[in-house]
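Give me the fold.
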Amino acid sequence: MAESPGEWNGVYDAFSDPEEKRVLFAALDSFRQYRRTAHLNVTHRRRQNFYALPTTQWQMLAEPPFNFLSNLELVDEAIDANANIASAILATGLQSFGLGSQPENPALDWRGAATSSDLNKARSTIRQFYRDWSADGADERRACYGPVIQDITQEFATCQEKDSVRILVPGAGLGRLVFELCSRGYTVEGNEISYHQLIASNWALNHTTHAEQFDLYPFALEFSNVVRRDDQLQAVKVPDVHPGSELEKASEGKQVHAFERMSMTAADFITIYGDENHRSMFDAVVTVFFIDTAPNFIRYIEVVRNCLRSTGVWINLGPLLWHFGDRGLTNKNGETEKPRSGIEEPGSIELTEEEVLVLVASSGFTIEQRKIRDEGSGYIHNRTSMLQSTYKTSHWIARKI
């Protein structure tokens, strides 16, 4: 990975499997459609509803101090600013997969593939840059990344050659934790299954040109629980740092360049890291806001144990918002699904925090530290909103026996 930081590798050809191809095309198309659908669903429909009010009422609300129509114009400008990020991400994705913006080959025409679910994922991915790549998101990063970075620092404090320490970060998302650990001298591999996250992280890590390159309006599309319009229309700059420049600085005086110590894999965590090729490969596995993405947490334990070296550490921090609690066993036609591998294996279980730790301890690990962090951690948290939601996070360190 000497040419650029964080370029990611797949373990399969996305075009060879029809379902993988569909998912990829849908992710690309969702970024393409961000601008149009945001204008349509956020401001256009509100204008329609506004003019449906009695004439005397909408006329009053169009004037100061309300200025509702003027405020919608400002939201439109914010949407366009966010859409500039979406367009840049799309361009990176098309380049990465060798696709054209207007493909002539129908088999490679990715346009029109996005579903409403894909559009929502694109919208949430754009907002996530507030958490991972803006100065304003530093408090959230400090709460969730800070403790595990400290754990890693303490664990390998006596290691003279930090580049010899190999760390795996499953569920790497937009790549900030991978970047932070690599900047501190370690060899870090991120893993992510979501094409939305993969394409966006690739853009952030490898294709931004300087710090504070783009304006992001993380809360512009939200009209509920707003105290002031200025709160809704607050802007942040992304990225807060330029990853390439920072990794160049981190490489000064080092034998191994940071670009060679940082990588991303595009694959199902269970499928790729549970095999023989990845046995005993890593000194540490760091899971942040990740373990609750497991339909079957026992499979995650098995995979972590497989890829950790003897006496290696598993550091975890996050809530238990189990993602697959309502998973069904039938397809849209009411037929029983055929068993699939990885995260799509049938079945799911939701565990308490105590049960999670009992399972880990009974599966070849010793629990060395465990704490429920009461200070709370937000997730894309709008500090000015009337609705405040924070997590108490489970923070623990387990060592492979």
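The longest strand covers residues 365-377.
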